[in-house]
Amino acid sequence: MSEPSTYRRTQSTYRRILRRETHSPRSVLAITVAVVLILALLYLGTEIVLAMIGTRALLAAPLDMLDALAHLDDAPDGLVVGVGVGLLLIGALLIIGAATPGRRGRHQMSTERGLAVVDDEVIASALARHAAHAGDVDPDNTTVSVSRRVAGVHLVPTSGTRIRRDAVISTVAEQLEAFDLTPSLEPRIVVAERGRVGA
């Protein structure tokens, strides 16, 4: 087997593994839709059986439902428009949910030996440690949140002291560059206006 084809197959395997680790399946959405459809069909089946044995309907008899649909143009315009808009929104949400990939709280990190997948919490913890040291802030007063594209650093100074904001920005930017994450993160530094007494 030639070396280029082995390399391509290895790269393809890596890409598949990385995608699986950074994207979540749409299982919850699929299960929710399936449960709603099953409940609707169970209800409809129950109404049909009750109509066949001549018992009073739970909500509406199947023939009454068909008659209401046939005479939908007699219903108030506001009701028809409202139901139509509601169904349109549900359909749009389902299409968007099915077409867009789910995301996990993870990023790809380049290493000397290849690629690694890192949880956003690990990235946030590392950034918090470096930001606290650079800003001369107690680690308990440093909070970092990592989203898909942004690393937000929130610092609360000790009362009567100033945080070296430029040093924090520089340190966080250097760390993000060293991590070499995909997708890349943009640092956003927020310093609280009020300090914490005795922190």
UniProtKB/TrEMBL annotation:
<keyword id="KW-0472">Membrane</keyword>
<feature type="transmembrane region" description="Helical">
    <location>
        <begin position="79"/>
        <end position="99"/>
    </location>
</feature>
<protein>
    <recommendedName>
        <fullName>DNA/RNA endonuclease G</fullName>
    </recommendedName>
</protein>
<feature type="transmembrane region" description="Helical">
    <location>
        <begin position="28"/>
        <end position="59"/>
    </location>
</feature>
<keyword id="KW-1133">Transmembrane helix</keyword>
<keyword id="KW-0812">Transmembrane</keyword>
